[in-house]
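Annotated sample (chain length 1195).
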Amino acid sequence: MKFKLRSKYKLIPEQKRAVEHLARGILDDKKYQVLLGVTGSGKSLPYEENVLVYEKAGRNTMPIILPIGELVEANLKKSRRLFAPSINPKNGKQEVKPIIQYTRHMSPKKMYLVTTSCGKEVKVTGDHNFWVLREGGLRLVKTTEIMLSDYLPMPRRLNLENKVHKKGFLIDNLLKRKAYFRISEIKLASALRLKKLLDYQKYYHFTQKNEGLNTSFLHKLGFEDKTLNKIKIFTKNGFELPIFFDFTKELLYLLGLYIAEGHAEKNYLLFSVHEEIFQKVFYRCVKKTKIKAVERKYNKGDFQINNSLLSDVFSNLCGEFSRNKKLPYWFLELSEKQLSWMLSMYFSGDATVASNEIQASSASKKLISDLSYALLRYGIKTRTRKKIKYAANTEKRTKRQYFEIVISGKNNLELFKNKIGFVLRRKQIKLKKIISNVDNTNVDSVPIDGKSFRKLRESLGFSQNSLSKAVDCSRPHISLVEADKRKPSNKLVKRFVQVFEGVDKSSSFTDEINQLKAMSNIFFSKVKEIQVVNPPSKYVYDIAVEENETFLAGMGGIYVHNTFTVANVIEKLQRPTLIISHNKTLAAQLYQELRDFFPENAVSYFVSYYDYYQPEAYIPRTDTYIEKDSDINELIDKLRLAATANILTRRDTIIVASVSCIYNIGSPREYGHFVFEFSEGMKISREAILDRLVGLQYERSDFDFHRGTFRVRGNTIDIYPSYLDEGVSIVLSDNKISEVSQIEPVSGKMINKFLTNFILYPAKHFITDPAKNKAVFDKIKYDMVKRTEQLKAQGKELEAHRLKQKVNYDLEMIQEVGYVKGIENYSRYFDGREPGDPPYSLLDYFNEPYGKDLPRGKAGWLVIADESHMTFPQIRGMYAGDFARKQTLIDYGFRLPAAMDNRPLKFDEFMRRIPNFIATSATPAEWELSLAGKENVVEQLLRPTGIPDPLVEIKPTKTQVADVIEEIKKEAKKKQRTLVTTLTKRTAEDLAEYLQEKGLKVHYLHSDVKTLDRTDILDDLRSGKYDVLVGINLLREGLDLPEVSLVAILDADKEGFLRSDVTLIQTMGRAARHVEGRVIMYADKITGSMQRALDEVKRRRDYQTAMNKKYGVTPRSIEKPIREKLVERDITDQLINEKFVNYKTLPDIDIDGLTPMDKKKLTRSLRREMVLAAQGLDFELAAEIRDTIKKIEIN
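Output written by the structure step:
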């Protein structure tokens, strides 16, 4: 069955865009996406901004710099496997990471040009992310949040393969010319292949008359290199070139000279070579490359090469005139030596050696950017700047903008001299001279935070004097660094790190030292200017880079970095879906909503089924063993079992789960094998059916018929599946099933007589296969013997005896009844897992039928992390808490080491098991944002209702309780509800009791309230049974209560987790469902968290208000029905099964409808209630309960 969403709500345009984006991302195999419920704008670069990417071909890596628009447009439909240099913010190192997505958006109305002090610049949208160095640490900020005091990271050098590039293929560079080749230059076998591509006449003239054929056919033939080497291409004018050019020193010299002093006309190249040594080099180059050049008669020093093919190649590779000059697109593929030949010739022609630096200017911005990248091959850091000067080689003296690249600083100048140098001897001599006079290290300084550095120095026991001696610098130098009056050089910072690492033997300051080390691996340039500019192109573009989410862009290279919508995504994708929530209350609300959105589909609820849980533990200090004790909620257990049954049988399944989904529940394959399928007419004996039922962990109970049991009445067997609300009845006749029907469990009334067949799933997730028991038992016994010997060797005789006794008892129980309390500790053996292997969880139940590692875009299921900023940290933390307790049990002989493998998944195991995720949150954490990538963050700016974020009022804490009472009364008169948040459970309960004494209808809500009761309390608040709800942390993310118009936050100025900016924003958001919503924060001061929360809420409110005015939207409160309860529970069932109810009045009880077993349970429960009533001095209720007990006993 397909997912079919039913709702009266319509998607607004923004939601439609979000649905389309998310669905397209999943279909395009985008693993991680974020649905952000706050305002924002696109994060992209304009078309012409350059980016550096790599393409891997076999063992070779081919780097290329090209406009981001060209890159994205070429890869939107079918993307290639490309890579990008990326900075790792943890260690500052450059890493090559794959590009995982290409994105194009419409341009916004304004963009920003970010320029650094060294002249590097990049044009981006306002919400594009940058790593910046601020206050001594790297921070991720938006463009609009960058400060002029920030430093932007850049690479120290480009780490590329240093392989010699031998040949260049010319055909791709002939864009304007019609060029040809002949049959005499290719093999006969290749000529025969052309027969299929050409008509007869063309083929005849080509093969028989040796006429030329257009070079476009060379691509179709796919010749070997040896064949291509012999081919020459020609034009009808007689110009000729080999199809390959060898990248010799002379050719690269010639290209460098052309970039500096040449230009291309239609049929010839022109070089201006006036210095004698240049002319000698030029003559040598053209002679070696077999190119004919002539000196112009009337312009001495101007040399002309009359070859239209060569003109086409040079102009395409390096530009025609000064304003569009560039380095050849393959310049980064050259070896460092080859590149140095081209650069040496260029700088010899165009550069000036000034008093303390090298300068080269050009009218081409692209060329200056390319030169910056090229010099990074050698670790040479440059500065670029704009300047206005008179244009050269023009008739009129007009001023134009030029771009200048500058190499300064002793280290950079020495690198240039040794790695590149000048062809002109006079410039080389001058360079050596200025190097001997220059002592400037400021161009390669590290902007560390002086206060943090001083703290680290003092913590490691160094005085300024002792540290100066250890790193070989002056004491005043360190004093200036710590006063932020001087920035240390990169070399000095590396010496600091080396000395600090040698002293920090205990690794107490590893993080601080690693941060210092990371900063020394990055070149930082201070932000000089941020300008608002008009978008230069119709579209803006972005790429997503795996893990680090940064790439090099711009001139010279800078590193640049909810339920209804989800329901529509599910319907659009038609995939089984797992939705993970961080608490049971929110999970229950999501389950109710999705159940109503998808009434015809299988919507399931999967959370921990314990109302009470005491894990098995041992306290060595007091020699106290605590046996596992738990109170399983039968209704939640039913929903869990229904979830696993649904996912194995129906594709239209949605499971809303808590982090319980990462805990061990046994192998889905084993669970799926243990099914009992029966149908009308099937030949099977009564005993065989009973054996199968016992094997599936169903218990026989002829009198107390409840979930997970069966009863036998003659030839009729009634089964109550653990995961259903209805029973199944089998009627036998002569060892043959004559009838299968659905029944109402209590009355036995037939519901569906025409149930021809039925598949019965096990009553428990942990089951054992009797056929495998012997092998499993042997393995357990072997491990038991091995472990007892280890314990004895350690002198732990008591522990060895205890372990042997425990294991033997458990094995006997499993052998006899197929189950034992704590069987999950042996799950690794029954699942066939190796030690250390991850357990089977709900994720494996999805992967079993629908898989994770399917072809691109075909992964069969979807993961949605609701309120991801809370959910992911919770998943990450589950494993550590389980580990310590288990280790103690193993050490003292209560469990085998295999118990360690009954655990929750580690976070990396969880990530490997999911095919993708969509993270939804109004305040997503940095982790999911960086993992998803900028283009995979979908923002919903506006609420469809038009309700802005609530107004916030701050009041003093001194009279907060008295004041909140008055505020609650005001809201109650308007039949509106109030939420009050406190800091502790005790405070919540005491305040609720005090408010009740004041005549208010109140209840509290916190984690001690039972799972199913929480949703009932929320429903009661909405229906008007309560006017106010007092809570702590449950009144936050995701709670959707349209009747709530006031949120009161007590003690808002107590900094901490419960009063952080994220928590405050989420809590205040509960009042954004009502058109009169408001928030009161009780505080005596405004903390940093409060201010950040207030600023964010104001920003969202202003934006929503502006959009409402723009589009004429009138805010209206959410209209949301009070949905069916999570599960319907009879009040008598509560009294019978729950240990402590503590009712204020005794509800009506249908005594006549109870079974004898239920009467006994109810009597015990009522006796407890009677004692509690008496202890509370409620003697009237106690007497009423006493009389009810007597009636039950007499009946």
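Annotation: The two ends are 50 Å apart (CA to CA).
Annotation: The longest strand covers residues 94-106.
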